[in-house]
Amino acid sequence: MLERSPIVEVAKKVCPAVITIVISKDLPKIEGFYFFPFGDQQLVFPRLKKEKEKTKIGGGSGFVVSPDGYILTCNHVIGDPEADYTVLLDPEHKYQAKILAKDPLVDLAVLKIEEKKLPCLELGDSNKVNLGETVVAIGNPLGEFEDTVSAGIVSGLSRKITAYGGLLLKATSLRGLIQTDAAINPGNSGGPLVNMEGKVIGINTAMVMGAQNIGFAIPVNYGKEILEEVIKYGKIKRPFLGVRYVILNQEISQA
């Protein structure tokens, strides 16, 4: 009798709490196209109506962290202030997401849906992650394939990258990331990276285009800090130094 992979049990435990985020926006309707000859080619431009309709423009992932509907995801997934975000637990359960807080410094965001007794994931300790340990990434790659499971190992720790992503294609500098060779694709952002106990150790955030199996996750301890602040204070509290500076010139230096 074949022995069942432990990844099967991890997937059964984790998948019910992984959610799909559908991104939609009011956009003009397309009623046809204009065709213009240009040399040997033909340029095509859409012919738009004045009225608008709700249109799906993207998708991402996230996961429930409390039975009363708190959700962790990536900031770049919900980065468009003019878009609407719908959370799908499954095809029959859809909720309008409320954005409670965003932290672009670590690319994390906290959402809330109005529901009780939800399945949720246990947050592990990313400080105890070991190089080479087996991990599982779960999410909604390409915004089409919910609950996609991929497995790999922790390939590196404390990585620093500059990532370009989200609907607005902003550049974000991220530090302290977990590198993994578990398959991470566009749409996986915000989904959990879990260990073999089913505990979240990271939040999937980026991949290297043109490379094979080089993906990155934000350490879950960053998310734990943010989540605690949002639940306690209703927002993310960040210290700042109230200092202003001017560049010295000869006139100022002699004053």
Automatic annotation (TrEMBL):
What molecular function does GO assign, one term? Answer: serine-type endopeptidase activity
The GO biological-process annotations, alphabetized, read as:
proteolysis
InterPro entries referenced in this protein's UniProt entry, alphabetically = Peptidase_S1_PA, Peptidase_S1C
What the entry lists under Pfam families is as follows:
Trypsin_2
Protein name as it appears in the record: Uncharacterized protein
Organism field = Candidatus Nealsonbacteria bacterium CG_4_9_14_3_um_filter_37_13
The root-end lineage is:
Bacteria, Candidatus Nealsoniibacteriota
